[in-house]
Amino acid sequence: MTVTEDAPVGEIATLNVTIRIKRMNPEGTPARAPGESYWEEFHVEAHATDRVLDALHTIKWQEDGSLTFRRSCAHGVCGSDAMRINAKNRLACKALLKDLNPSRPITVEPIAGLPVVKDLVVDMEPFFASYREIMPFLVTTGHAPTRERLQSPEDRAKFDDTTKCILCAACTTACPVFWTDGQYFGPQAIVGAHRFIFDSRDEGQWDRLEILNDKAGVWKCRTAFNCTEACPRGIEVTKAISEVKRALTTGEF
Ligand code: SF4
Ligand code: F3S
Ligand code: FES
Predict the structure, then answer these.
(1) Ligand 1 test: best mutation among 78, 80, 168, 173, most atoms within 8 Å of CB?
(2) Predicted local distance difference test score (pLDDT) of residue 85
(3) pLDDT at 190 over 50
(4) Fold designation for 125-250
(5) Domain-by-domain residue ranges, the chain?
(6) Is the overall model pTM greater than 0.85, yes or no?
(7) How far is the CA of 211 from the centre of ligand 2 (A)?
(8) Would the CB of 93 count as within 6 Å of ligand 3?
């Protein structure tokens, strides 16, 4: 890394960083067999305040247009650019280069436990299939209301944390049980269920709890906490999972 230490006031220091990317082309390249994964290094000049996403854009736009990754909002809202950066799941649009020890190569890999489609893009379908399982929508019976469904601030607070989920999959793909078990719904599906189980307006709690009491559900969790550490929204994922376990054993929520 070269830092321009004497940058004039108002100017941002620049870095020369090495980005080491795990790549895979399902069709192969002149030098690689189809589906073979390999590491490739790129050298990028960047501002200290740039994010990994900026560096990936520079590589794609100036060096190798075939580099493939997902992103949309670029501001930590859409959840589409979760990647394994320096061995930790993060959003590329929120990971600042200066915070990643840029004197050494910064490694970027696809999130683990889902099939790689190309380079940093994984097949999210198994992840969304688990999310659909837990019925992520308000379940009510009776006539449609003629006014809003009221809720006290205290009742709203019970599930405030889990409403913040952006479906990025950083939690689920950081979970060792999800990597090895092959059946576990994963922490995000439980977060998604928690958001409705603890909503006083919802009437589908017991259906969701029954789904999560299944062999693919909450009892697979071994309290590894990787999910909580990985969540870019700061959601207390492990706590939400323990609250669902308690609801199953006490019947209280
Ligand atoms: Fe992403 Fe956090 Fe939602 Fe998991 S709980 S999908 S890490 S926002
Ligand atoms: Fe996995 Fe999180 Fe439980 S990492 S084992 S879901 S606490
Ligand atoms: Fe939307 Fe990063 S691009 S969260």
Answers:
(1) 168
(2) 98
(3) yes
(4) Fumarate Reductase Iron-sulfur Protein; Chain B, domain 2 (1.10.1060)
(5) 2-122, 125-250
(6) yes
(7) 18
(8) yes
Residue 227 near ligand 2, beta carbon < 6 Å? yes
In DSSP notation, 80-140 reads: --EEEETTEEEETTT-BGGGS-TTSPEEEEPPTTS-EEETTEE--HHHHHHHHHT--S---
Cα 131 from Cα 162, distance rounded (Å): 14
Which ligand 3 atom sits nearest the alpha carbon of residue 70?
Answer: 3
CATH architecture of 2-122: Roll (3.10)
Q: For all residues of the chain together, what is the average pLDDT?
A: 94
- pLDDT tens-digit map of 98-128: 999 999 999 999 999 999 999 999 999 999 9
Ligand 3 center to 92 CA (angstroms): 7
The ligand that comes nearest to the alpha carbon of residue 169 is 1
Between the alpha carbon of residue 212 and those of residues 38, 87, 134, 192, 208, the distances in Å are 38, 30, 8, 11, 6
At residue 1, the pLDDT reads 41
What are the helix (H) ranges across the chain? 52-62, 125-133, 153-157, 176-181, 187-197, 205-212, 226-230, 237-250
Instruction: Report the separation in Å between the CA atom of 95 and the middle of ligand 1, taken as the mean of its atom positions.
Output: 16
Ligand 2 center from residue 222 Cα (angstroms):
6
**How does pLDDT run across 22-81, given as a tens digit for each residue?**
999 999 999 999 999 999 999 999 998 999 999 999 999 999 999 999 999 999 999 999
